[in-house]
Amino acid sequence: MLSYNLFIFAVSLLVTKAASAPATSSDPAVNKYFVTFGSSTSQTGFSVNGTAPSSKNPIGNPSFPGSTTTGGLNWLGFDIAEFNYTTILAYNLAVGGATTDNTLIPTYTEGIATYVDQVNTFYNAYVHQKPPWSWDDVLIGIWIANNDVGQSFDRNDTSSLYPKVSARYFEQTQRLYDAGARNFVFLTCAPQQLTPLMIEKGPEINAKVAAAVKLYNEVLDKNFQKFKTAHLDARAWLVRPSKAYETAIANPQEYGAPDATCTNEDGVSCLWWNNYHPGIQIHRLLGADVATTVGKPWFNSQ
Fold it and tell me: What predicted TM-score, i.e. pTM, was given to this entire model?
């Protein structure tokens, strides 16, 4: 385990190197691609109308590591700049506040691109045009669960709602498969009951959040297995963010934090960037889990 000061130095060096120097290769023939959909825990501020990802800036726009909710790199940044096996170009459609579908679980404010919207944007920008990749080189990443639960955990109809949400989720994923995608990594809902925000709400609310997370993930897991069975020519992996969260929370001092609930927008002095979003250390652990789960030819196992 890196010491706290050494970790901060390593992150600083990594951001500087990735933002200013070419990655492993500039040859498109050996590039891999990571196309991601999600919410604030995945966002980097990418616009399909801006500069495309390249070996000089693997997220394309804005400058690396992008507009994140960690204080620095998020899990995606670690995966494409530290845990990468080769050059990975990231086309990240994730938007803060996103849910799966506004008609099922509305976003907290209007105008936020849901998973449905993000897939539509992807189709218009890349599928309906000639994409810059071979689909064999593309990994699809989806982490869209958190706001679906956060915006609905106190509803009385979650047992019927979450199967509908998950069905819509996999309808969109099917569209990605139909476009040509054959490699998918799915991230389950994070253990939101462990966030400072939900802890502050008290044990009764916290128990409702934990129950909603459990139910959502059970439905997601079931439909993930169905997706795998129905698409034998595809590869699909499931990653549970709970492992990364729980590892850091169990030993906050080991990860540079005085306790498990403090917040700091520098992303490294506490485990939490704010009272809802994890900081850099939890994201690094999550990125490592994704890298190890998926492995080559995209990532080195950690």
Answer: 0.91
Question: In this predicted model, what pLDDT tens digit does every residue of 91-126 receive, in sequence order?
Answer: 999 999 999 999 999 999 999 999 999 999 999 999
Residue type at position 180: G
pLDDT digits (tens, 9 = 90+) for 246-255: 999 999 999 9
Task: Pull the structure tokens for residue 166.
Answer: 């998950």
DSSP conformation letters of the chain: ---HHHHHHHHHHHHHHHHHS--S---GGG-EEEEEEESTTT-----TTSPPP-SS-TT-SSSTT-S-SSSS--HHHHHHHTSBSS-EEEEE---TT--S-TTTS--SSTT---HHHHHHHHIIIIISS--SS-GGGEEEEEE-HHHHHHTTTT-S-HHHHHHHHHHHHHHHHHHHHHHT--EEEEE----GGGSHHHHHT-HHHHHHHHHHHHHHHHHHHHHHHHHHHH-TTSEEEEE-THHHHHHHHH-GGGGT-SSSS-B-TTSSSSSBSSSSSB-HHHHHHHHHHHHHHH-TTTB---
**Contacts of 31 by beta carbon, 8 Å cutoff, 6+ apart:** 25, 55, 86, 87, 88, 89, 133, 137
